[in-house]
Write a structure and sequence with these properties.
- The protein is α+β, with helices and mostly antiparallel strands.
- The protein has 23 helices and 17 strands.
- Helices cover 37% and strands 10% of the residues.
- A hairpin with a 4-residue loop joins strand 8 and strand 9.
- Helix 3 packs antiparallel against helix 6, helix 21 packs antiparallel against helix 22 and helix 22 runs antiparallel to helix 23.
- The longest helix is centred in the first third of the chain and has 21 residues.
- The chain is globular.
Length: 727
């Protein structure tokens, strides 16, 4: 495509140059419009004005009016939504009218074609120069690309045999086709189109995809999560810890007691090597240039838009200047969570995928599925718990090699080989997985990782659970709430704010600690919050990382929303204001107005109405606000279906629905149904999360939000029973 003049974007809106530029842009956009329209209908295009920012589709006349009234979005530098095509440094943000699967297929096709152009566009001598020094897998990959110049059928310009096979295989994975159905479809296509050079079977297609270097390794594991059968123990027949068999045994084999030499493994770990995937990123010129976005294209104005703007990233650069000297070195984040692969709650089974995010990419890409790297699939049927370190061993070993030994990679942008390094900056998980990854127990006396050894905890005698209060210790020393005994736990708070544990502090705590893995082993010691020494400390740089483990904000919002709605609507089983909670208040000697009061009627007790309790009419009003709310397309699901109006409860909503309710709906619902002190606290709670989830933050905003959440936690401690208090 010819170079397009875009200087008119900076001209005034009433200038002839700007108006003519808008008209030329619209001609290009309409010409390249790919929307399916009826013959007599006018095609619609995405509107790139500063108000719509490519989110909404309109006719040409409406888009023209928007561009004159609201100006053209100057950040939209590459018109990939309007026919210019995706180039390096641009983003391909999806819209409400585009199918995610189709976007994935288009991106995959563009990436394959771009790799072909990069490799095949040079001369034979250049290609030979690229091949020199590369390992066998990379040479095999380039040979496959050379073979992929072959057209799918004569005069086919859109697909090669390779690109068609990869996209067809991707369709199988996205839509859950069985292997047999894919096989039959391949045979039907070969019969219907004999001139096309199609893969003849599923095995043939799988072999081509495997040659791309994106396969995985199967590593047998102990059924009790004690060990992996790899390296020096690759040929063992039983676990050296619990003596369990490596193979699944039938009843006869169990009775005889003899272990077979081979069989079906009892548990298998799938490991996807990291190096080939990093090599593929730099072999494509588009993604290779995007891998330096955090240094070359990121706006550097002391605002937080990207992890590179954060203090943890900057501290890592200071601690490791040699790593930071090459912006192509990869920064990774790790996340994991369990899910049921059978899509049914009747089967108690969970597997744990471990996914790596690449933070070199711009923020609108590094969370996209096509740029996330599947690293491990940890088998079920139950959570690995603290034994997850057993399954992380192959990944940690490769990360150590990428830090110390490095890997030679070809950079398609600079047309050179270089030694790539990679570092894991942090993990992201929910609270239970936080314990699994870090080794710090998130249950019991020291459940708060931030307060660590200074966690204020108390066991509730009647509720039979731990509660965590004492949030006043984080207030300023002269704050009046520190001396307010009556409104809190009956004591004056004199403790200083808790200090976070650095990596060096953690290692000092764990000096002499011995890890014991496996379901048959006891973890840690009683009254000791550490259950293991995390395998991440085997990474040479891990102890210097400022921020080693992060909590997923969406999980936190879902838990808070569940507690608040359950308590306000008094939903059985979910409310925190129950009989046991009232007796706990009496046992603690606080909130006298909520204590159970004896009556003369055969020992029955009277329970006072709390300030946050709603009447029947108030519950109806509260539910009607949530049920009648209307949302723009794409903002949230149909939350009204989650509200059972006659039962006065809300259930079945997802994490994103809770995110939306906490940010917006809850604040409207509580305003006219709760007393001012309760409503204002919950409104401030929602505003805190809304502020925390902004796309752009100033460092001062984070300081303000930290001070704000401390006060909010103290207010919640004053209003609600201890079980609902948040740590």
């Amino acid at each position: 495509m010819a170079i397009i003049n875009k200087d008119w974007i900076d001209a005034p809106q009433n200038a002839e140059e700007y108006i003519k530029g808008v008209e030329n842009f619209l001609e290009l956009a309409v010409l390249n419009s790919t929307m399916d329209v009826e013959e007599d209908d006018e095609p619609e295009i995405l509107c790139p004005c500063t108000k719509c920012v490519n989110r909404f589709w309109f006719t040409r006349e409406v888009v023209f009016d928007h561009l004159i009234a609201h100006r053209f979005n100057k950040r939209y530098k590459v018109w990939n939504f309007h026919g210019e095509g995706l180039t390096a440094g641009s983003s391909s943000r999806g819209s409400g009218h585009q199918c995610d699967n189709q976007n994935t297929l288009d991106n995959m096709g563009e990436m394959i074609n771009d790799i072909l152009r990069d490799v095949m566009g040079g001369s034979t001598s250049e290609a030979e120069g690229i091949h020199k020094g590369l390992d066998e897998s990379a040479k095999k990959f380039f040979k496959l690309l050379e073979d992929a110049k072959e057209e799918l059928y004569p005069r086919c310009k859109k697909f090669s045999v390779l690109s068609y096979t990869v996209q067809f295989y991707l369709l199988k994975c996205l839509n859950g086709w069985s292997n047999s159905s894919f096989d039959e479809l391949m045979k039907l296509q070969c019969a219907a189109f004999p001139s096309a050079k199609l893969p003849t079977s599923f095995h043939h297609a799988k072999k081509m995809v495997k040659n791309l270097g994106l396969d995985y390794k199967r590593i047998d594991a102990c059924p009790n999560d004690c060990m992996l059968y790899w390296k020096e123990r690759a040929n063992d027949k039983s676990c050296h810890v619990c003596k369990a068999s490596r193979w699944k045994l039938n009843e006869k084999q169990k009775e005889e007691g003899a272990l077979p030499d081979e069989g079906v493994p009892a548990k298998v770990l799938r490991y996807f090597p990291l190096k080939p995937r990093l090599q593929r990123l730099f072999m494509c010129s588009k993604t290779a240039e995007l891998m330096t976005w955090h240094e070359t294209d990121r706006k550097k104005d002391d605002k937080l838009r990207h992890p590179a703007d954060g203090q943890a990233w900057k501290n890592f650069d200071i601690a490791h200047p040699q790593f930071a000297s090459d912006c192509r070195n990869v920064r990774l984040g790790l996340t994991t969570d369990g899910f049921n692969p059978f899509r049914t709650m009747s089967v108690s089974y969970s597997i744990w995928p471990v996914v790596l995010s690449i933070y070199n990419l711009p923020p609108w890409l590094y969370n996209k599925s096509e740029y996330n790297i599947m690293s491990l699939i940890i088998p079920g049927p139950s959570s690995p718990g603290y034994d997850i370190d057993v399954y992380l061993q192959p990944l940690i070993e490769e990360l150590k090699e990428l830090w110390e030994v490095r890997v030679d990679i070809y950079d398609a942008v600079k047309d050179e080989k270089f030694s790539l390094r990679a570092a894991l900056l942090w993990t992201i998980s929910d609270f239970p997985a936080y314990a699994m990854l870090s080794g710090w127990s998130t249950k019991g006396e020291f459940a708060c990782p931030n307060c660590n050894h200074k966690t204020w905890s108390k066991y509730l005698k009647y509720s039979k659970k731990m509660c965590y209060m004492g949030h006043r210790s984080s207030l300023k020393e002269n704050h009046p709430w520190r001396r307010n005994k009556r409104a809190f736990d009956g004591n004056v708070e004199t403790r200083p704010p808790p200090t976070r544990l650095s990596g060096f502090d953690v290692l000092k705590d764990l000096e002499g600690f011995e890890n014991k893995f496996g379901k048959t082993q006891k973890k840690g010691r009683k009254k000791f919050p550490w259950k293991k020494k995390s395998i991440f400390f085997e990474l040479p740089y891990w102890e210097t990382n400022t921020l080693r483990h992060n909590l997923n904000v969406m999980h936190i919002e879902k838990n808070i929303c569940d507690s608040v709605l359950g308590t306000l609507l008094d939903i059985p089983g979910k409310t925190k204001d129950h009989v046991a909670a009232r007796f706990d208040l009496q046992d603690m000697g606080i909130r006298n107005e909520l204590h159970p009061k004896r009556t003369n009627n055969r020992g029955k007790r009277l329970y006072s109405k709390a300030c946050f309790s709603l009447s029947s009419n108030e519950k109806d009003l509260f539910c009607s606000v949530i049920k009648s709310a209307k949302f723009p397309d794409g903002c949230a699901s149909n939350i009204s279906r989650c509200v059972q109006y006659h039962e006065r409860k809300a259930t079945g909503y997802k994490s994103h629905d809770a995110h939306f309710m906490l940010h917006y709906l809850l604040q409207v619902a509580v305003k006219n149904t709760l007393p001012k002190q309760v409503a204002s606290t919950l409104i401030r709670l929602g505003s805190f999360f809304r502020g925390l989830c902004r796309k752009v933050l100033k460092p001062k905003d984070l300081d303000d939000l930290e001070s704000e959440i401390i006060e909010i936690l103290c207010l919640l401690e004053k209003i609600f029973p201890p079980p609902v208090s948040l740590t």
